Amino acid sequence: MELTRKERELIAAVQDGLPLDPHPYTAIGRTAGLTETEVIEGLRRLVDRGVIRRFGLVLSHRDLGYCANAMVVWDIPDDAVGEIGEALAALPFVTLCYRRPRRRPDWPYNLFCMIHGRDRKTVEALADEAARDVGAGDCPRAVLFSTRRFKQRGARYAQCAPAGK
Questions:
Q1: Rounded to whole angstroms, what are the CA distances from 48 to 16, 44, 118, 157, 164?
Q2: Domain limits at 113?
Q3: Are residues 86 and 110 in the same domain?
Q4: Model confidence over 91-149: pLDDT tens digits?
Q5: pLDDT per residue over 41-53, tens digit each?
Q6: End-to-end CA distance of the chain
């Protein structure tokens, strides 16, 4: 896919994330030599063309005080996993939800969702609430709390960085 020099500069300016600034697109524009409007329109065109496949937030939950982070894994009947997965994903406290194949006999779980809370008790209560709300109260599940923190970041477009950077 052909990119202009300005498009490469714009990608390089956003690939490390948006600045913590009341006007992040203006700040990016200063870095890339563009106006705020040019930044917004340029990013929209890059998304529309599929150059940037996703433009969204990567939050550092711990920095916001959410130190109890858990993947809740579920063993949902195959004929209900789509419906229950959609219901789980719609809950305001579920930040991620996806289906994976079981790996029997050791791993019976086929549905995964992420829940963040300030403490373990809160996360466990939210998992119970989710089970009731989506009709999965009788389905086996496990609440797996994070023990390590990995760096989260967005996509890297190193080949798009302008020459000299």
A1: 21, 6, 37, 17, 28
A2: 62-145
A3: yes
A4: 999 999 999 999 999 999 999 999 999 999 999 999 999 999 999 999 999 999 988 76
A5: 999 999 999 999 8
A6: 21
